Amino acid sequence: MSDVLILGSGLAGYTVAREFRKLAPDASLTLLSADSAAFYSKPMLSNGLAANKTAESLAMKSAEQMATELKAAVRPGSRVEQIDPVRKVVKTASGEYPYGKLVLALGADPFTPPMQGDAVTEVLTVNDLSDYGRFRAALLGKRSVILLGGGLIGCEFANDLVTAGFEVTVIDPMQWPLSRLLPQAAGEFMMRQLETAGITLRLGEQAAAVNRTAVGYQVTLAGGDVLEADLVLSAIGLRPRIALAAAAGIKTARGIVVDRHLQTSDPAIFALGDCAEVEGLVLPFVLPIMNAARALAPTLAGTPTPVRYPAMPVVVKTPACPTVVSPPAIGSAGEWRIEPEDGGIAASFMSEDGALLGFALLGTATARKQALTGALPPVLA
Amino acid sequence: MHKYQCIVCGFIYDEAVGMPEEGIVAGTRWEDIPADWSCPDCGVAKADFDMLQIA
Ligand SMILES: Cc1cc2nc3c(=O)[nH]c(=O)nc-3n(C[C@H](O)[C@H](O)[C@H](O)COP(=O)(O)OP(=O)(O)OC[C@H]3O[C@@H](n4cnc5c(N)ncnc54)[C@H](O)[C@@H]3O)c2cc1C
Fold it and tell me: What does UniProt give as the signal peptide span (chain B) (predicted)?
């Protein structure tokens, strides 16, 4: 039996394992992963192309290296099919693994928008290292790419592709890129920067169908226009992987529901990372994971520790328009104050009584990141 | 002089260049960067992760 059994070896699974090992040198620890269990930088999937990174060069640690470093059993290719919370075992095709405490670090699945056409299943998504390998292979000898989704990850891929010499068209139903993170004036600034970099934006439009042509693909917009490209990549969004937990009777909502101790509705089962919903928040980014792992490790080692989230700005990796955002909490009352400057724009979300609740800094205004971050309230105090 | 790469986000710290905008002068060795320093791109703390020596 493993004292601690972790499902997933991404940033969440790996970091909690590493932090736990520091506190519990002798406990037995096992990581099961559906993939190769190689550790890689997921954020680099959307800026690796221009840097000419291959899937192999993005893998920083093999499963064996991770096992040695963590003094843990690391099992690649071990997809868990079922959790039995009564017997405290998980089931894979190759056998059962009993646990004392179970950690779900399962990540999230990309989804593609509902579309018609004969090539819907050929639309690419890039959410892990093997997707990235397939993406690199598919790009060989190609010139043009249509990107579905002008959010954070879509804009990063668009910038990376255009820098690497591809013709890029981004389709997004909203009127400006990063519409969930940026107020209009900031979004329009980003739009101009991306266009100057050579990216074509089709905003306020939606892909209705994707079909194969003799040489590539054609995307039909809901408005009727038809665009052609060699490849279609989707970066619409991610959905937390909740099915395994839900089937075991563990409470789920948007993500696997956990409290401040990252504990699910089953007291022996915990969750963090892209699969988890912490006090109602699904935050699929690096910093929430690091903070969650730092709290969960002592909890697993016997000292219950609640997670705290400081303000956690996210850097958007669009070199054509350096951007850092720290969106206000959903439902915050207040308004955006916009300060354009030479070569940039600062947007501050202010409460009625004048407190800073969030920001978006673009171009030269990114220099104010540190000063403004210090003035933000914590995300979870 | 070495370069180190953040394993979380790929940010590269080049000792030869430093990070003048954060008050870290050119030539500052990785070991001399304060423990409370964090990666300017992903925010991960120095103490929290390994920097890969890539050059
Ligand atoms: C292209 C891209 C760029 C990004 N850029 C940034 C950025 O710049 N800054 C930032 O803060 N965040 C960024 N993010 C978000 C950040 O990378 C993620 O929040 C983080 O990597 C998620 O880690 P995770 O461990 O929760 O999930 P994952 O890394 O997805 O790990 C999930 C693990 O679970 C395993 N698994 C799944 N199902 C099973 C099963 N049934 N049985 C066993 N194992 C299973 C998988 O094999 C995998 O090991 C980016 C994300 C993407 C996709």
Answer: none
Contacts of A315 in chain B (CB under 8 A): 9, 40-42
| pLDDT single digits (tens) B6-55 | 878 878 888 999 998 888 999 999 899 988 888 887 888 886 656 666 65
At position A187, the amino acid (one-letter code) is: G
**Closest Cα partner for A296 from A84, A107, A10, A105?**
A105
Q: Which residue of A has its CA nearest to B43?
A: A287
In sequence order, what DSSP letters do the residues of A13-76 get, joined into one string? HHHHHHHHHHH-TTS-EEEE-SS---EE-GGGGGTTTTTT--HHHHEEE-HHHHHHHHTSEEET
Q: Is the ipTM of this complex over 0.85?
A: no
Q: Do A290 and B9 touch (CB under 8 A)?
A: no
Structure tokens at A183: 């107020």
Burial class (CB in 10 A: 0-12, 13-18, 19+), B22: exposed
Which atom from ligand 1 is nearest to the alpha carbon of A14?
Answer: 25
B19 to chain A, closest Cα gap in Å: 13
- pTM score, two decimals? 0.95
Nearest CA in chain A to B10: A44
* Residue A209 amino acid letter: A
Per-residue buried b or exposed e for A362-373, using 16+ beta carbons within 10 Å of the residue's own CB: bbebbebbeebb
Contact with chain B for residue A286, Cβ under 8 A: yes
Ligand 1: centre distance to CA A249 (Å): 24
Q: Do A11 and B8 touch (CB under 8 A)?
A: yes
Distances (CA, A) of A157 to A28, A307, A338: 40, 32, 27
**Of A256, A378, A244, which is closest to residue A307 (Cα–Cα)?**
A378
Q: Is A73 on the interface with B (CB under 8 A)?
A: no
CA distances from A32 to A90, A103, A240, B23 (A): 10, 10, 18, 42
Cβ pair A189, A318 in contact under 8 A: no
pLDDT in tens, A267-290: 999 999 999 999 999 999 999 999
Give the Cα separation of A355 and A338 in Å (integer).
Answer: 15
pLDDT in tens, A53-96: 999 999 988 999 999 999 999 999 999 999 999 999 999 999 99
The candidate with the shortest Cα–Cα distance to A171, out of A119, A133, A115, A122, is: A115
